[in-house]
Amino acid sequence: MKEKTVNELVLEEIGIVSKIVGEETIKRRLLDLGLIEGTSIKPVLISPSGDPRAFEFRGSLIAIRKEDAKNIKVK
Question: Counting Cβ atoms within 10 Å, is residue 30 exposed (0-12), middle (13-18) or buried (19+)?
């Protein structure tokens, strides 16, 4: 399965987090939210402007900006 970023997933497509890259402050924030390796994540809503997108994971719905979502690699 090809690795891509979470913002490349289409609505309702499930991805599995493989790693988080980028700036340490953003990386720490995403890890604190529970986005660790092996977590299932699914985009469920897109704002009218296209940014941010809402993702469902670990029973929560969290809005993540494209700028931050590009740092989340999924399989």
Answer: buried
Q: What is the CATH number of the domain that holds 50?
A: 2.30.30.90
Convert the pLDDT of each residue in 1-22 to its tens digit. Answer: 678 999 999 999 999 999 999 8
Of 7, 9, 4, nearest to 74 by C-alpha is: 4
**CA 26: distance to chain centroid?**
12
Amino acid at 52: P
Give the Cα separation of 49 and 43 in Å (integer): 15
pTM of the complete model: 0.87
Q: How many domains does the chain have?
A: 1
Here the tokens at position 45 are 């809503």
Supply the range of the domain harboring residue 19.
4-74
Query: How many CB atoms lie under 10 A from the CB of residue 64?
Result: 25
